[in-house]
Amino acid sequence: MMESFNILLVTGNSETVVLIERHLLGAINARYELAGAADIDAACDRLENSPCDVLLLDIEGDDNHGLKAVKRLNKAYPGLPVIVVTCLDDEAAAIEALKSGAQDYLIKGNIEPRGLARSIYHSLERNRLQLRLEAAEQRAHFLATCDVLTGLANRQAFNDRLDRAIKYSERYNLKLAVLLLDIDRFKSVNETLGHQAGDKLLKEIGTRLRASIRETDVVARVGGDEFLFMLLNIQEAHNAARVAEHILGALDKPLIVNGHEIFLTATVGIALYPDDGKNLWTLIRNADTAMHIGKRAGHQRYKFYAAEMNNRAMKRLEMEADLRHALKRNEFILHYQPQVNGQPDQIIATEALVRWQHPKQGMVPPNDFIPLTEETGMIISLGEWVLHEACRRNREWQDAGYPPIRIAVNVSPRQFEQPAFVETVKQVLRDTHLDPRWLELELTEGAVMQDAEKTIDALKELKQLGTRVSIDDFGTGYSSLSYLKRFPIDMLKVDKSFVDDVPGDPDDVAIVKAILAMAKSLSLEVIAEGIETAEQNAFMKGLGCDYMQGFLFYRPLPHEQIATILQGLSSVKGKRRIGRAADATPAPTDGKQK
Ligand code: C2E
Ligand code: MG
Ligand code: MG
To answer: How far apart, in whole angstroms, are the C-alpha atoms of residue 170 and residue 174?
Structure first.
């Protein structure tokens, strides 16, 4: 029961006022206030400014007029309980009043204090339950149809609406499009900034996405960072493409969360009704396939589903099966790309890059199969093989008497997060008798940022061991500067995508300059990847970039060719030592590692 409440008595009769006041005083224990209004108009005026919890309406004689008043109050104040007080002892009138919306019908001559109190309490209680029921219903409806975090439609609601839209489009011979949008690398944002910030981000993304489409179109959140769109009445495929551009454009501006500026990209897969599917399941599945193909293609922002994509999916399954045998069948080989200190003959390291010699397809480049090995976990055994083979080869070159250089090995995030990773590195170095200082591990930003505290421990162990660590593809992920400072790393590898357009593109020039300035202030070395032209080389050198890697100097080469190159260099050894690394750190004397 309410602790206190307000009663409004509507009557033009002073005797009624006295009667009600007296009864209330005798029977209501709670705190209440009684206000009065002479007629229904005055009551409505009053209610505009000071609402009440229960209204007592005196109906005198003219019942028709009184019933109108009940209806009027009900319409204007739907939740307000109205109790009719009247001298008209007429059952039919009472029923009419209740039908019109009154909660009770009290006859003045018969009212006694407790009866009045009971009627008021019941009205209040009924009203309170009604409000709770309505709120619960609203909440249930919201939960059944909406995504709680973003307030967008949920999968169920989306499916219902798509199903209806398909039927409508079928009847009127219209087209529609289903788009599936997935935020790129959202996992790493979540892991870097925490889940609460991730949730805030998703909310903001939801708002932007909703604002980017027409009122009649639908957007739903259907997974952590996945959104489905239904675009009605799409005439041509390119109309859907334009909307996809527009939607993606909504994410172009940085999002601000907890003071961080977050730049996000996303990939959209598009399936069209009726071309790519005639029911909702096929359309959604095909939009999903298209999205995944777009992701794998790299910088494809949106991708249409087309029938031939099914074949690709089949091929992917075959590839997965083939990959499972590839290691046993010795189908992987390593190529090596030298890293230089300004000149082709100043080699400081070679990067081991894996290739798959597929029995039918020939040489498959890593970008075509590494992601699959990461998804399936095969990267763990493949990565270990690469590490072992690369260290073994480097030791072989050293044993042949070539000037020692470092071997750089790519480590995928899944490898790095293995608790036994550092132990594996130690074991491989022991097995191959390579001095740790001739090994460099290339980690990605994503890998080191995943669990920064664990990273610091692992990196410290590697540092103690004496191996070097560089951050590969630097600039493409989300690095937190404060962590970068605490990580004991040696070098940043500026991603090829930034090097591609220098010195022409002012944006890339600015990024490259910023990376170099930051690296200097953190005392890190910098290597530029993908140097293809003398102009890029001169420009990067001019900025103080320490090392270069790219087709301008060497392509990735089979080990025999590297041996030939090293042999050529060792013949001039003595007159001129190669590379800065070799200068700075002389070859191990016994070459054996305990
Ligand atoms: P990455 O580690 O950034 O390696 C550099 C890639 O850029 C190599 O491609 C290399 O051939 C290419 N590249 C170097 N210089 C130039 C240039 O001047 N122009 C152009 N257009 N490309 C250049 P590749 O060998 O196809 O490897 C691609 C990616 O596959 C590597 O990128 C790395 O992320 C991954 N990868 C390769 N081997 C392994 C491995 O053993 N383990 C893991 N986890 N990933 C590997
Ligand atoms: Mg690399
Ligand atoms: Mg790279």
So the answer is: 6
